[in-house]
């Protein structure tokens, strides 16, 4: 079995493949985000996250784990290249909701895909409720509706900014009505970027920083999220959430509950298909939004 065949099995892709077109790209992204979680659990199992492709392939494809952006998007861009797509990898600065500003460093790995003269942004490594379900056409000031909400690119000072327009949130469990995991801004900024090509090696230093710095949002809170046909499920810190998009006209349903520490590994396996090998030692100290 070739690596590409193994990859297809991992994401459940059985569609006929004819050529590197937009229809297939959409199918590939949808299969990936519903099969491979966005997660940082290695940090809390005493393991190091590395950017070596063979290690990532073994972790995600053969061990059926997930990863964060530099892992998931690197694997996805590899598959696109193998299939004949014209790709250019880019880097973005993520928006920090606590600071209400973009992080000063480029840490988010994304992929530009060129099809029949049009450019699209493919991203399978953002996770949570900001994760796009399909590629976005790289065109300014045009709302692009998807299941999670409307996305739009705007330009400010020579940078492209991706924003998501958030629907009304309904929360059955009133104890979570004011949870810090919730973003109340109706127009949520996700990240900004330019069109400068990036190699994966340029992310090695920031990959180490995100795992070790006490200032890293990804170092102080266990995160595991997976897209579903109707929304997204997520464990962030000690909170489990199941989000149903557009369960009513103009509203998303957020079903949130607290997970007991001794139940977390069981939940990772049952809800996300992740069987951790190392001892999971949770932390819940950093700020992160669903």
TrEMBL record:
<protein>
    <recommendedName>
        <fullName>arylamine N-acetyltransferase</fullName>
        <ecNumber>2.3.1.5</ecNumber>
    </recommendedName>
</protein>
<dbReference type="InterPro" id="IPR053710">
    <property type="entry name" value="Arylamine_NAT_domain_sf"/>
</dbReference>
<dbReference type="InterPro" id="IPR038765">
    <property type="entry name" value="Papain-like_cys_pep_sf"/>
</dbReference>
<dbReference type="Pfam" id="PF00797">
    <property type="entry name" value="Acetyltransf_2"/>
</dbReference>
<dbReference type="InterPro" id="IPR001447">
    <property type="entry name" value="Arylamine_N-AcTrfase"/>
</dbReference>
<keyword id="KW-0808">Transferase</keyword>
<keyword id="KW-0012">Acyltransferase</keyword>
<comment type="similarity">
    <text>Belongs to the arylamine N-acetyltransferase family.</text>
</comment>
<dbReference type="GO" id="GO:0004060">
    <property type="term" value="F:arylamine N-acetyltransferase activity"/>
</dbReference>
